[in-house]
UniProtKB/TrEMBL annotation, chain A:
Protein name in the entry: DUF4249 domain-containing protein
Species whose genome carries this gene: Gramella jeungdoensis
InterPro entries linked: DUF4249 (IPR025345)
TrEMBL record, chain B:
Ligase listed as a keyword: no
Pfam families per UniProt: CarbopepD_reg_2 (PF13715), Plug (PF07715)
Annotated organism of origin: Gramella jeungdoensis
InterPro entries noted in UniProt: Beta-barrel_TonB_sf (IPR036942), CarboxyPept-like_regulatory (IPR008969), Plug_dom (IPR012910), Plug_dom_sf (IPR037066), TonB-dep_rcpt-like (IPR039426)
Cellular localization per UniProt: Cell outer membrane
Primary location recorded for the protein, binned into one broad class: membrane
Family statement: Belongs to the TonB-dependent receptor family.
Keywords noted in UniProt: Cell outer membrane, Membrane, Receptor, Transmembrane, Transmembrane beta strand, Transport
Residue ranges constituting the TonB-dependent receptor plug domain according to the UniProt record: 279-357
Domain of life: Bacteria
Membrane topology: Multi-pass membrane protein
PROSITE patterns: TONB_DEPENDENT_REC_3
Protein name: TonB-dependent receptor
């Protein structure tokens, strides 16, 4: 799925593919200064809004430097004040649920280590709603066929800037589940086959979107309507193998907020070899009022709308379009121990947790494996655990919003 | 007694009578009579018989009246301004002689006078000389030398040395011949004619052999017999010598002689030996091996001269501005090397006739087509081919030259398996046409047309295309030997387009276009050998379409938008004097007045001065009509330079320049990118300005075979354009909201050693230079690095280049090229942070670190075809390996967020040695 980025048009140019190269470079820590990072976002949804406060860390460190001891509050133009408390991991939640009102200004205040950081006064830029969500079969630029989910956003504003987030939930049906499983007896170092009546075949997994998806109506002649592809899944992606659901959250944001997110992506995006953006400190709308400390981040106030759809891939593709399970599930037929006192190779496989039972030597799996003529074979055939037990990928608990048939 | 007394008286009377008879007086008048008839009348009236040769008597008209004048006086008067002398013999006959005088007595001391004679020099004046003038007649009857008699003898001749003067004129045109040598063979003394053709030479009385010597005119010898001061004019025909071919080494002493600092000339013919990537002869790449000129990397198209940004270079092809002189990201030059005659780079003192850019002028001139025979040159390489042919149109008068270059990379790409490459496009071509016509010696016309086109895919769904188109017309008129003028008309057009085509609703086409037209008139006047003037005026009209976007197909919902057109008028007038103060000191003093007026139609936004310029601080608008002046900038630009000879082969040069620049590149990229646009100065964007001081020592060794120079410079600039972080420059009508104008400072020392001739030749250049930028605006978003000077994107302290060529035999030569440069500065992150679930790098200080150093070795081997005289054409093979060491010089280091995590990457353009074979054919 490609989004237009009007500012960067360059991918890898041909010559670099032929003659040049892009290699990993070692990140060296050259010294850090304290920079606070504030993610503040409130919408017109009535809920306990959250603000995230952390600080920049060393390049070589892992993990996030969450700030747990800040005072966070939001002041409304009419004098209302909403205080936040720390719930853990740098996340601050408002004591009371509230919503951003149209026409009202809001200002975020964060006090940490004696320094007060204040944002600009922000307000809802405009109202918008999600019109239609369309699912269609599409072939992307690389020639892969798949399903594209696009959203039509409606607003009365002349110029619209949107930020989208999504939450996708997909159903997993493990292809090689059987009613049995192998367990290892640690003391004796052997493997026994037992019943497996628990649900291992059908699971659900939910993933949140990571990067902001941006769309603007700049240069568009659409009279208030804007269509945008939010998600594209090629047919080879296992998430679209079975029923799939997408919750799309749409926020109408201000041009400055849009610019912030766009620059954030640019500065971190796959920089083209031939022309790179001049990097610098990305200033949001938050500043320290006392002191020289730098503050990163944007305090956004936006109107929101969300909508969920369900997709049945069979409406767009035939079974034959999807990859066969044996293309992504590797089958393994461990051999017998060489001598009586040698360890059973089966034990190793099961113990690793990567493999599980699918069938015995009389099952149809026996024909699916390419085996050498001389290898002595054991009694059981194994497959990747994710193809046997869906709980390794998701949960068997069906989400509340899940509707199986429409 | 009475008889003797009367005899005495009689004798007395006779004596008296005799005397009276010699004082013969006559009254005669002439009215427009010829001299001959006048003499005849005198003859009759006086009763004297005149003896003369008629051919001696000049054609002179007499209108005079003589009343009772003695015949002597009348004759003296009639013959006064002729070379005829007269002698009255026996009171009855008058002998007229030409030049000579008849002496009736021998000089004093003729018979053995012993007088102390001190040795005297030949030409002392005021000497008593009573000796008559004798000469040998016909001592060499075979020599056909004309004999000329100058002046006439005088009785009381007191001088030994006389002056001969006159004019030397061209026989056909009657124009004065200056610098003609006139030599007296006897004494070896010589003079030369001045600018008006006038000479004065001192000669001994008597016979002298006078010769003229000149390259341009015939050499003649005359026998001149000097009787007194006189004049002699020479009318010389032009000397004609039929030569096969002449090679003139005219710039042997240019290194030390030229008054300009920082001037480099590229020898176009010899660059074919320098190994370059993919076998291309590239004038621009050769320029980067000279000190003071560098690039930010292999994939970058622009140049940085003496710490200046890439848009500060004026690249002229036959006086037309070329906006993008490279193909494909700067990897290939857009200038056909076969049609180029000369390339001169001014980076120190820029002569007053050039202006409009701060850092340098690359003056590239095409060569004139051969007007006598058909010639051509072609080269075939692995990726590109070039061809140039010269056709005479009117023999000896006019010729047409055509050149073209193209790649076949599209064909290569289609034959590859990788799908991303297979569907890509990468092609370019350029073509040039030049017609030169010489009407006569004084009038010449030449016209050049050039076009280049590049097209390549930058991602799988977008194609980028750009074009240059230049048209020039030069008319040169030589008024006389001292005045020459040239009228130049040029038009330069540059545009680029991006086509973005995907299957969704947002396929678009966007682009940019700039067109400029210039009229320039330049006059050269040689006042004297001390002063040479160069003066002129120029005017340039800019039309810029800063950007447009429109839907690519009917499904696209993109609207049709274009930014309002920018128009500007740049004018200049200059005057420069090349003043030769004395043999040691040469001053080049020039002043250029330049101005720029931004014209409407436009809508200008006004901003609150207490806040940074952005959409929220707009206080009002000002509307301007079409062609209404919005704002004018301008000022004087001084171009002063001097050269002083400390020794005959060592000179010291100094210069001071200040320049203005009215057009700027809009780019917030670290290096030059093909989508950079150019914008004019206007209400909010002020022109850039710079001051440069430079000082250098220049020395030639071994009779000009080796040239060395060491030059230092210091440059300050103002109003340099930079942009806020995350500036949105694409189709932005109000760019002033994203611009920061700051100060620049750069300085350096450049060393160049060049061996121009011999089997082993080449050059070594080293420069140490620093380049800084300071951005300290009023508001926080306009301040970078705390408002202090920081290293600019092209600050490369050490830059070393070695270009060598060794000729093994007449046919084989071997070349090596080594380049070493400090890595350029980059902005390195000072930390990382988490935002919206992903990791990002934190940048706070700009350009605090450097990428690793760059070095590269290239080798090539050249094989010339055999040297048989009678063959179809001359061939030349070049085998070269670029980047022999295989070092993957990092072009950039950048940081990406992939799957939510930060990764550092290093990119290089050429990471492996690239071998090339190319074949050249000259016919």
């Amino acid at each position: 799925m490609k989004k237009i980025n009007f500012r960067r048009f360059f991918g890898l140019a041909i010559l670099t593919l032929l003659l040049g190269c892009v290699e990993p470079y070692e990140l060296k820590n050259e010294g850090t200064e304290f920079v606070i990072v504030i993610e503040g976002f409130i919408s017109d949804e009535f809920k306990n809004h959250e603000v995230k406060v952390s600080s920049a860390s060393d390049l070589e460190s892992s993990g996030i430097n969450n700030i747990n001891n800040a005072d966070v509050s939001i002041m409304a133009g009419n004098g209302d004040r909403y205080d936040f408390f720390h719930t853990g991991e740098g996340v601050y939640r408002s004591f009371n649920p509230f919503r951003a009102e149209e026409g009202q200004t809001y200002q975020l205040e964060v006090i940490h280590d004696g320094v007060t950081y204040l944002s600009d006064n922000e307000q809802i830029y405009g109202m918008a709603e999600i019109g239609d969500i369309e699912t269609s079969r599409l072939t992307n630029d690389e020639g892969a066929a798949g399903i594209a989910i696009s959203v039509t956003s409606n607003s009365e504003n002349d110029v619209q800037f949107y930020r989208y987030e999504y939450s996708e939930t997909y159903k997993i049906v493990a292809p090689y589940t059987s009613g049995y499983k192998l367990i290892v007896d640690e003391d004796v170092q052997n493997v026994t086959i037992v019943d497996a009546p628990e649900e291992r075949k059908v699971c659900y997994n939910t993933i949140e979107s990571v990067a902001a998806i941006l769309q603007s109506s700049r240069f568009r002649d659409n009279q208030g309507e804007l269509e945008n592809v939010i998600r594209f899944l090629p047919v080879s992606d296992m998430r679209i193998r079975h029923r799939y659901s997408l919750l799309i959250k749409q926020y109408l944001i201000s041009p400055d907020a849009y610019n912030f997110y766009e620059t954030l992506e640019e500065l971190s995006g796959s920089q083209n070899v031939f022309s790179q953006n001049q990097p610098g400190f990305l200033k949001g709308n938050i500043e320290a009022v006392n002191g020289d400390n730098l503050a990163l981040g944007y305090f956004e106030v936006a109107s929101s709308d969300e909508k969920r759809i369900f997709v049945d891939p069979m409406e767009y593709f035939n079974v034959t379009d999807f990859p066969e399970p044996n293309e992504y599930c590797s089958l393994v037929w461990p051999g017998v121990p060489m001598r009586a006192d040698s360890p059973d190779p089966l034990v190793g496989y099961i113990q690793s947790g990567e493999y599980q039972f699918v069938g015995d030597r009389n099952s149809e799996y026996a024909d699916m494996i390419d085996i050498g003529p001389d290898t002595p074979l054991g009694p059981y055939i194994l497959a990747n655990i994710s193809c046997v037990d869906c709980r390794t990928i998701g949960t068997t608990v069906q989400p509340e919003f899940w509707i199986e048939d429409e | 007694m009475r008889k003797s007394i009367s005899l005495v008286i009689f004798y007395f009377c006779v004596q008296w009578l005799f005397a009276q008879k010699s004082e013969n007086t006559v009254s005669i008048s002439f009215n427009n009579s010829s001299l001959i008839s006048a003499l005849q009348s005198v003859e009759k009236k006086s009763g004297l018989k005149l003896f003369y040769a008629e051919e001696w008597i000049p054609d002179k008209q007499i209108s005079k009246t003589y009343t009772d004048k003695p015949v002597q006086d009348i004759l003296a008067d009639l013959l006064s301004d002729t070379v005829i002398n007269f002698y009255i013999l026996d009171e009855e006959q008058v002998i007229l002689t030409r030049n000579s005088m008849i002496y009736d007595r021998l000089p004093e001391g003729y018979f053995g006078k012993q007088a102390e004679r001190t040795v005297q020099s030949d030409f002392e004046e005021g000497e008593s000389n009573d000796a008559p003038v004798f000469y040998n007649t016909d001592n060499n009857p075979n020599r056909e030398i004309e004999t000329v008699r100058i002046g006439k003898e005088k009785v009381n001749n007191s001088r030994k040395v006389f002056q001969l003067s006159g004019y030397a004129l061209d026989k056909k045109t009657a124009e004065p011949i200056s610098n003609l040598a006139i030599i007296s063979e006897n004494s070896g003394n010589g003079v030369s004619t001045n600018l008006d053709g006038y000479y004065e030479i001192k000669l001994r009385a008597g016979e002298n052999l006078i010769s003229t010597r000149s390259i341009t005119n015939e050499n003649i010898t005359k026998r001149v017999i000097i009787y007194s001061d006189g004049s002699l004019n020479f009318n010389l025909a032009e000397s004609l010598e039929s030569l096969g071919e002449v090679q003139i080494s005219s710039n042997a002493t240019k290194n030390i002689d030229n008054a300009n600092t920082g001037e480099e000339e590229i020898d176009i013919e010899n660059i074919k030996n320098i190994p370059l990537v993919l076998g291309e002869r590239d004038i621009m790449k050769v320029a980067t091996t000279l000190p003071g000129i560098s690039t930010t990397g292999e994939g970058s198209a622009g140049f940085n001269v003496r710490g200046g940004k890439a848009d500060q270079n004026l690249i002229l092809l036959d006086e037309a501005v070329m906006y993008n002189p490279a193909h494909f990201f700067g990897l290939f030059s857009a200038i056909n090397p076969f049609t180029t005659g000369s390339a001169t780079i001014y980076k120190g003192n820029i002569p007053a006739r050039y202006g409009g850019r701060l850092s340098s002028v690359f003056d590239i001139a095409t060569k004139d087509s051969d007007t006598r025979e058909f010639q051509g040159e072609a080269s075939i390489g692995p990726v590109t081919s070039s061809l140039a042919i010269q056709l005479p149109v009117v023999k000896e008068k006019s010729g047409l030259m055509l050149g073209g270059r193209s790649t076949y990379s599209d064909w290569i790409l289609k034959s590859l398996d990788e799908p991303q490459l297979k569907n890509s496009t990468a092609s370019f071509y350029d073509g040039i046409l030049k017609y030169n016509h010489e009407f006569d010696k004084n009038n010449k016309l030449s016209t050049t047309a050039y076009v280049s086109d590049d097209r390549f895919s930058i991602t799988s769904d977008s194609i980028y295309n750009y074009q240059n188109r230049l048209l020039t017309l030069h008319y040169t008129h030589r008024f006389n030997d001292r005045n020459r003028g040239v009228l130049i008309l040029t038009n330069s057009d540059y545009k680029f387009n991006i086509d973005y085509d995907n299957n969704l609703q947002d396929s678009f086409e966007s682009g940019y276009h700039i067109n400029e037209t210039e009229v320039k008139f330049d006059m050269k006047h040689i006042l004297s050998s001390k002063h040479q003037f160069d003066y002129g005026v120029s005017g340039k009209l800019y039309n810029v379409d800063p950007g447009f976007i429109k839907p690519l197909n009917s499904e696209s919902s993109i609207s049709d938008i274009s930014l309002s057109r920018e128009q500007g008028l740049e004018a200049a007038a200059w005057f420069a004097d090349n003043f030769k103060v004395n043999d040691e000191l040469l001053l080049s003093a020039g002043i250029r007045f330049s101005s720029f007026t931004s014209l409407g139609e436009d809508q200008v936004r006004l901003y609150d001065s207490n806040s940074p310029k952005n959409d929220n601080s707009v206080t009002g608008y000002e509307e301007y009509e079409p062609n209404e002046p919005i704002v004018t900038y301008g000022g004087p630009e001084f171009r002063l330079s001097a050269r002083y000879y400390i020794l005959s082969d060592l000179s010291l040069k100094a210069s001071y320049n200040n320049t203005y620049q009215y057009i700027h590149t809009l780019s917030n990229n670290v290096t030059v990118s093909p989508t950079d646009t150019y914008r004019l100065s206007g209400y909010h964007i002020k022109p850039q300005k710079a001051n440069q001081y430079s000082l250098g020592l220049f020395k030639n060794w071994s009779t000009n075979e080796i040239e060395t120079s060491i030059e230092g410079y210091y440059k300050t600039s103002d109003n340099l354009l930079d942009f806020k972080t995350g500036a949105n420059l694409f189709l932005n009508e109000f760019v002033e909201t994203e611009v920061i104008q700051g100060e620049g400072k750069s300085y350096g020392v450049e060393l160049l050693l060049k061996k121009k001739t011999g089997d082993f030749n080449g050059w070594f250049s080293y420069s140490y230079s620093r380049s800084f930028l300071k951005l300290a605006g009023e508001f926080a978003e306009e301040i970078v690095n705390n408002g202090e000077f920081f290293a600019s994107n092209f600050d490369k302290p050490h830059d070393l280049s070695l270009v060598t060529n060794y000729k093994l035999t007449q046919r084989f030569s071997f070349s090596a090229n080594f380049v070493y440069q400090t890595g350029r500065p980059i902005t390195y992150p000072t930390g990382k942070y988490n935002y919206g679930g992903s990791e990002y790098v934190l940048y706070s200080q700009r350009n605090q670190f450097r990428i690793p150093d760059y070095y590269r070795l290239d080798l090539s081997f050249n094989l010339e075809g055999n040297h048989k005289l009678e063959k179809l054409g001359h061939t030349f093979w070049n085998f070269s390996v670029y980047n022999v060491l295989g070092r993957n010089n990092p072009y950039s280091v950048f940081f990406v967020t992939k799957d939510g995590e930060v990764e550092a990457k290093q990119a290089s353009i050429f990471s492996i040695p690239v071998p090339t074979i190319s074949f050249n054919f000259q016919f």
